[in-house]
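Dear colleague,

Thank you for sharing your sequence with our group. We've completed the structure prediction you requested, and as agreed, I am returning the results in plain text so they can be pasted directly into your records. Please verify that the sequence below matches your submission; if there's any discrepancy, let me know and we will rerun it promptly.
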Amino acid sequence: MAQTIRRHIAVLGAALLAVASGLVAAGPAQAAMPFGQVDAATVATFQLRAGNTFAENDAAIKAVEAQGAVTVRNATEVLTSGGRTGRNGLCHATGLSASLSPGGFCWDKGDDTSNSYTDAGGWTPQGLTGSYDAQPDGKVDGRTAYLASWHFSRGMQTGGAHVANEFSRVSLVNPEGGQIRYNHLLLVRPTLDANGKGSFTRVASHGDGVVWYGNKLFVANGRWLQVYDLRHIWQVNSSTEAVGVTGTTSSARWSGYALPMIGEYVTTADGGACVAASTDPATKDRPCLNSLSLDRSGQDGLVSAEYKPGAAGGRVVRWALDANTALPYGHATVAYSSPIWAMQGAATDGTSWFLAGDCPTGVGGGSGDPSGARYSCIHKTAANAAPHVLTTSPVYTQNLGYAPSTGRIWGLNERINSTEGVRVVFSIDRA
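Please find the predicted structure tokens below.
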């Protein structure tokens, strides 16, 4: 979620702070703070506000589609159109417990090894969702599919210019027949000029978390919740570095597809930044939207989680969804303060909570990572109870999600290894 160089420092700091404070969730031999509920008065101040973005973007989308420079596709058409070839199975060491029957897949070599540390830059995966979120039966048009979010950054560990979150994309993955096929879709913002001509620009986003819900796609980016519609995927007609429409030519920075934002929500009405884990009366109503997952137990809801580097206290917030519109009602219903350090993901099956983050002291070694980075951990807990480690997990595990149709937890990791790669998309039994 945060840049990987900061994450590595956070892991080292967490190990030291654990000794001093004991706040990291741990096994029975170590004390742990509970996954405690936030008071209702504070939760009542958490709001998602949309403004005029949906109406403005709708007009721009209609203009682009009327001009004939793009071809409108839906998710199923993209899923069945071939694309890049990944690898079925877990091709790297994961640290996942064999007792949880781990499975999953890997990206192709280029996406496995892409490197945002360099001045040339690279793509880094962040969020994961799939047909397991999109529909209650876990299928979209009768098929299983997955979708990941990525950000493109450059120079994040060099002496050159640092450019964070320059572009954002999602990948639609078709695992049918034991083969992994996927296409990248550049996330774009539709525009409309004074003459009524439509075009689009890049979305500069970290792509922190992602949830596929009906036809809608939610992408978290700090204080913003971006909304996309998978019935309006634009197949562009040229492959160049440009982004947008010029005359009858459209391009999406070498991608074959662009996905236009239909609207966005913000957690701060005054335009100020979100503040992770804030208890300050001036900013505690500004939760950050980092990871995202879907909770279908009871009334459907989005679950967001805050990343707080090198510390505990990130808030997990549940936002009510309207199943008829597939959009948020705009208010939070419940929230928790997490004792997991550097929390990167949160998901629930309605009874238990699963939280990705740093491991407690003495856990997570043996990853074999060249930098010495340790495995992450997936912790399990219930509301107002102390978590315990369910399993170690891939280095720098990010978002988690729960698939009600199979009873499994899904996740992915972002670790950079520009030679061999070390990234996986994984699933485990919830135990």
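Summary note from our side: The helical segments are 4-21, 40-43, 53-67, 75-79, 109-113, 131-134.

Kind regards,
the structure core
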